[in-house]
Design brief:
Two copies of one chain form a homodimer. Chain A has 457 residues and is α/β, with parallel strands linked by helices. Chain A folds into two domains: 249 residues, Rossmann fold, CATH 3.40.50.1100; 166 residues, Rossmann fold, CATH 3.40.50. Helix content of chain A is 42%, strand content 16%. In chain A, the strands form four sheets. Chain A has a seven-stranded mixed β-sheet with strand order 1-4-5-15-10-11-14, with helices on both faces. In chain A, a hairpin with an 8-residue loop joins strand 12 and strand 13. In chain A, helix 5 crosses helix 6. The N and C termini of chain A lie far apart (54 Å).
Chain lengths: 457, 457
């Protein structure tokens, strides 16, 4: 098909939206290792998981054999409010780079949460509502996940309690106010409303909080209130399942125009966006039907895939959650304070970790100054101000397109543009003022936190 | 056609995008009165306007006879980056209200400027570039227009100098940083870089600035630099022309599904969004081909149509621009400091003023607390966090839908959702904290500023 016929933006019709999520685990020969109970070192049972998660979500978490799972009609209806998201041909960026490569991006930022997080938030809130729960609890750092969950809960009339890392609560008052506008109860963490919060406040007076601490408070709040469960925005296999809608839509839009990507690029923190984007393409690769190059892009300051260890580790810094087998820097690893964006998670989705371990995908780490350079170039040519997280994928997409310029190859590149940077202007300001710096952890630093990983046979 | 067949969002295909703007003045029997030179009280000539505006834009400003004007290909290409914008059926809002009314909104907020302003920004920047200029100057208050112009200039490689009202520059650092990311030079106004700025700083040390002052500085900067012109984001007839793309797309999308709106509602500050949305529908009404009810919604704290005077007045507080005949509160009118959103302009587009004067449209003023109530309801049901400006239209759309609930009428309501509120969270915070208040100016206050209007025969 002639390029000229490909529009700037491909929108699927509403009747072409995916009606099932795709569970890539079903096509994996080497399944991701099971979550294990830190006390018994035995695989977590559905009963154990159901104390923390909604029952249906606990089932999804453990299901590694069913390839397609129906999306309930109520979730489909919600998806229609902000989906399909556009698959964009980056004509302007291609022209600015002078590359023969064809660049596409799937843009997930056109909703008020500002990211793809809403795809899983509505699913998790829906199952909580269906189970007759009163509400859900969660933590949020940068605030995208908390916003998405607030929106989903407002829509369903579900109570939403968000523990927001104190430093973000104070430095990102606007994110906080968006959540409040959606009726969420936002508490700076560590708070005085939970045992773990009071304990941490007593031990470290004046602490700014951390994601690990906020997770611990949210889990305690869920398990100590009647009718509440805890929900999480990334890392878990259920989240990758819900996010498969990104890849399914991308593939349907590309198929419509006979486009086959040579490489698919996504940023990777906990893995929810990358896992969702690549899932259906990876399925084809796993089944031997097609081949694609998959590239996970992570920050050089938090390089779990490229420099981490593959083994069982805690999912949270507070060590209250199950152990997962994954590429990890150790749950006590803290990215340098100069790190601006998200993607600060110490580990990586078990699904993606296994696929990476088995050679089905590659990974690259990039430094943040170069990421913001790519973000600026993208904003000025494609019009969209990208989130710092998403800009990791932009950086590598531009690198690959420039390689094509040298070699003359007309590769087709697809990357995930997970969100917008409207609430990240502190970081942009640093970049605009020339005050952004890079940091790469030393081998010793990583070895130190890896050494603290739990010992599991 | 059965409602069930109407999707949540109607997107036109790229080949269905309007290729011409529609100039509603061509179909008006009573043309809007001409801009006049404040010194001579004679209609402004194209030569006079061309000192301040690009020549092509000066021509468009004076052209009240050509009904359709071709959109240059370069502008069409830029439009394709973020247009078509969706026409959304507000199924969720209808359900929440329990109304038999059918509510549609045209959503212009899915681009980084966060509003419809980009439609005219790219047009004005394009003509400046085509004329071989180095750059453009403008003022911005809340920052949507400045952001839009920065984006357009970055795309075309044009210098962009924005005078930002000092209080906004300091209180809205994020808006400022978005503009800087797009390469704009943002100066807090009043500055020490212009004569008028230095004069005002000397006269009022420590002043927070005003839009009137920023306009004066931007005009001086344009006329004192070789290769620069001044551009403006609303009020002017050229801006309404460019914004007609909103109405043309809305009408095309509705025609596709055989939908005919009974009433069309838009917020009105200077009139750019409302004028653009209603233009093609108003054309039909003016030509006697169809009838529609048009409602302009303005803040009770700045009620130019509902409580202003129809006469010649300065377009700017600084009184350096031509005089326009319009509904006005007097160019010295200042909305109460408790007014949160935009729509603070003292006057109204000459085109809309004439149409209102001739009875082709109606107007309503609403108080801001009720506007934020409507905004919250909309956000929680339709998912999109609306701009305070846009929420004026939401408020009246909800009021009308609730009237239908009482009467049982199945009216079809179309309103303009001009933008998102991501950079307006200070105002939302006030509302969330129950600290928002209303203010309605007294008749005496309005009479005082109206008395200062220039005397024109």
């Amino acid at each position: 098909m002639n390029n000229k016929e490909i529009p700037y933006k491909i929108y699927l019709d509403e009747n072409e939206l995916p009606k099932q999520w795709y569970n890539v685990r079903a096509d994996m020969k080497n399944k991701p290792a099971p979550l294990i109970n830190p006390a018994t070192h035995q695989p977590c049972t559905i009963d154990e998981l159901s104390h923390v998660f909604c029952t249906e979500l606990a089932k999804q978490e453990l299901d590694d054999t069913t390839p397609y799972i129906d999306i309930p009609q109520e979730i489909l209806d919600f998806y229609k409010m902000y989906r399909p998201s556009p698959l964009v041909r980056a004509y302007c960026l291609e022209k600015a780079l002078g590359t023969p490569a064809k660049i596409y991006y799937k843009f997930e930022g056109n909703n008020t949460s500002g990211s793809h997080k809403l795809n899983s938030a509505i699913a998790q809130a829906y199952y909580a509502k269906k189970q007759g729960l009163k509400g859900v609890t969660t933590e949020t750092g940068a605030g995208q996940w908390g916003t998405a969950l607030s929106m989903a809960c407002a829509y369903l009339g579900l109570d939403c309690q968000v523990y927001m890392v104190k430093v973000s609560y104070e430095q990102k008052p606007f994110r906080r106010e968006v959540m409040r506008t959606y009726g969420a109860n936002v508490t700076p963490s560590p708070s005085m409303t939970t045992n773990v919060g009071r304990k941490i406040n007593a031990e470290f007076p004046g602490t700014n909080g951390s994601l690990g601490c906020a997770i611990s408070e949210a889990v305690e709040a869920a398990t100590s209130q009647e009718g509440y469960r805890y929900v999480l925005g990334s890392v878990l296999s259920q989240v990758l399942l819900h996010q498969s809608v990104i890849g399914l839509e991308s593939k349907a839009a590309m198929d419509k125009y006979g486009i086959k990507p040579d490489m698919i690029i996504g940023c990777a923190g906990g893995g929810s966006n990358l896992g969702g984007l690549i899932s259906p393409f990876m399925g084809e690769k796993l089944r031997g039907e097609a081949d694609y190059e998959f590239i996970a892009v992570e920050p050089a300051s938090c390089p779990s895939l490229t420099r981490g260890t593959f083994g069982y580790d805690f999912c949270d810094t507070g060590a209250v959650c199950p152990l997962a087998k994954m590429y990890t820097l150790g749950s006590t690893f803290m990215p340098s304070p100069n790190h601006a964006g998200g993607l600060r998670y110490h580990g990586m989705s078990s699904v993606l970790s296994q696929l990476y371990h088995d050679g089905f995908m590659t990974a690259r780490s990039v430094e943040q100054t170069s990421v913001f350079e790519a973000a600026e170039k993208f904003a000025r040519t494609e019009g969209i101000l990208p989130a710092p997280e998403s800009s990791h994928a932009i950086k590598v997409a531009i690198d690959e397109a420039l390689k094509c310029k040298e070699t003359g190859e007309e590769k087709t590149i697809l990357f995930g543009l997970t969100g917008t940077g409207y609430f990240d202007m502190y970081a942009y300001q640093k970049y605009n003022d020339g005050e952004m710096s890079d940091y790469i952890p030393t081998d010793e630093e990583i070895a130190k936190s890896v050494a603290k990983m739990p010992k599991v046979d």
